[in-house]
Amino acid sequence: MRKGVMRPGHVQIRVLDMDEAVKHYVDLIGLIEMDRDDKGRVYLKGWTEVDKYSVILIEADEPGMDFMGFKCVDEATLDSLAADVRKLGIDVKEIPAGDLPNCGRRMQFVAPTGHVFELYATKEQTGKWGISDVNPEAWPRDLKGMKATRFDHCLLYGDDLDGNLELFDVLGFGLAEQVLDPEGNRAALFLTTSMKEHDVAFIKHEEKNKFHHASFYLDTWEEVLRAADLITMTDTPLDIGPTRHGLTHGQTIYFFDPSGNRSEVFCGGSYYFPDHKTITWKAEDLGKAIFYHTRELNERFLTALT
Questions:
Q1: What is this structure's pTM?
Q2: Positions marked active-site
């Protein structure tokens, strides 16, 4: 049942060196720098995104994710969803408009896995970058690097997946795919508020609040292969790929920013409607679920977290 969360809106990522981070996210991945503020934060977006920004970089002493935000359809829905979250016994803090530039008030809370999420309804819209809203061309001709189209999702590691499932059900997300261990316990959740196979995902982990990756969408498998070439050309640390997932069926490559945060670019993937049955993978087949071609887990994929 949908309750008014439209899509992933933004993610704030901690980086150790802003200049090196900008090279990674702008020059390599191809995001567009839209703004900087007096706190040193840098605001980026993919060229197809209509809101002013979707990625916030902030310099810090350790890498990781500060928070992930989801955009709601309107301010009334924002209040209604905040009330629903409070009914779960989760504290919700209202952050006033302007705390993030060009963004309205935000309702922020900590999920059972320890990750910070927020909801908001208002952000300045600057339109797709480099093309008009009237008779638009196919794409801008001066894009950089991998030419990522949008911020797509995050994968996060934490302990209380059942608690997160209850929370995101209240927010109107559907459970598109899951991984179950032999006892029937959930080892992974892939949750969606759209037609995409996942807008946020969680993998069971004994520590709370661990960041696995932020993902950016490309249009074709050929562009994923080109991204692999750029990773090699720039001596960027590679995690794994190009390859295909069994989970979600996306075609993917993983690599690291200079601070150790993992990035993904991918294309394809399955689609989801609310009447679809949840797809289940067995934990003993997790290698095939994550890396469909090799059917073997990359140990770094499971343990390199920020």
A1: 0.95
A2: 153, 198, 213, 245, 254, 264
